[in-house]
Each structure stands twice: as C-alpha cells, then as structure tokens.
Amino acid sequence: MSTPLFWRVLMVVDRGLIALTGKLEVSGDIPPELLGKPLLLASNHIGNLDPMVLIAACRKIGVNPRFMLAGGLLDAPVMGPALKACGHLRVDRRSANVGEAMHRAVEALSKGGDPIAVYPEGKISLDPGLWPERGKTGVARMALGGGIPVVPISQWGAHEAVYWGNLHVSGWRDALPYLTSWLRAVRKRPTFKVHFGKPVELSDLKAETMGDARRAHERIMVAITEGLVPLRLDEPDLPRFHDPTRPTTGVSPWRPA
After folding, report:
1. Does the keyword Acyltransferase belong to this entry (predicted)?
2. How many CB atoms lie within 10 A of CB 111?
3. How far, CA to CA in Å, does 247 sit from each of 72, 80, 86, 185?
4. What is the pTM of this model?
C-alpha cells in the first residue's frame, strides 16, 4: 500500500501549517520492526486541529498515516474526492455496513505499507477535563481480527488552536469561531504535544472469544490515557484553556483517580 503522491504533497503543506500555528513536541516512537507492516495508530481526540497535528508528528518520525474517516467527509463536494485520492478509508458508523468497513480496513492493512490512524472515541471528547470518552470497540476488533499491532498515541495542546465551533457550518458566521481561534493560536503559539506509546499487549486475546474485543478496547484506551497524563501534568483536572463553544456533557471512564 504505497503512499499516493497527492497525499505526500498535502502532508508537506500540513507540516507547514502546524509550524505556523504552534510548537510541535513529539516523544516516543514506533518500533522499527513494525514499520512497513500492518499497523494501527489509536489516538485520543481533543480538537478539530489534532488530526493535522497527528499527521505532522507522524511525518516527524518518518511515517505517513492514513485515516479511517466518516462517510460524510468522503461524500462532501471538493473535499471528498481529495480525501479519496489520498487513500483514506471509509467507515459509516451509523449504518449496517460498519462490519464491512472494518473488513476493508483489515484487508488494506494486511498489505502493509502506511499505518492507519484511528480515533477509538469516534468524536472529540466532551468530557469536562478532555479525558478520553468511552469509545467503541471497532479498533480493538480490527486489531484482533487481523492480528494487527496497535500503537497508542496521546495528544495534548491541539484543543487550544481551533475551537470546537459548530456541528453544521452553513455560512460565514458559523465559520468565524474556527478562524478567530486559529488566528489567536498563530499569535499565542500553543505547544502541541504528541506521544507515541509502546504497542498495546493484545497477544493473549482472540477475536472469536466473547468479551475479548471489550478487553482489548479497554487496554487501548487505558494506554492512551496513561500516555496523556505526563503531557498535562500542570493540568491534571480541567484544561487551562477554555473553549466557550465546546459542550461539556461527556463522561470519561478512563480519567485517572
């Protein structure tokens, strides 16, 4: 699974955008023996900019991630065809085709090449402390079903760059929170911290064993949370940065005591 040229170009642009917006700090790495082989990168989701931060962090350690994206993004005019040309994979979370999408992802991963980046939570965390929400077992099922290693990724800081904003943008007024918050970030230059953890131990679990997908999911989420703790030592409870547009109706079962 080679990296499309168009995606390589966009990743270069992405790295420049992140360098303009803030300071990127990357810790940890991906074990060399996993490079070029089937691999899942599972990250927490803290803001609209964090996929771009994740791409820049991956490029810094020499990997080209592709994403599993909601079908709505791939169906959007202009952006949709561009994302498809980059080789991103489709998943329709609310349809009956989720299993089929997971199968396609495992099939693509089995060819090796670029790792696939996934968000187990499926959405930006709405937990007041921005700790990971419960998430779903899709990533765990892909890992167990294909015998695919999972590297947990923990992010902090990207939430300071672009507001949560609006779920639906129908005019320029709806887009203003994104633009004004980004311009503020360019001026303030927040630090974007990304940590690549050790691969999650899943070798004792099996796809066909009842309850093992849930156990694998728990291990993945705990690993992401454990990696997040040292990134926000000075913000152990609530994030210092307040986004007035982000609802705080979520609950994290993984939040450290």
Report:
1. yes
2. 11
3. 22, 27, 32, 21
4. 0.91
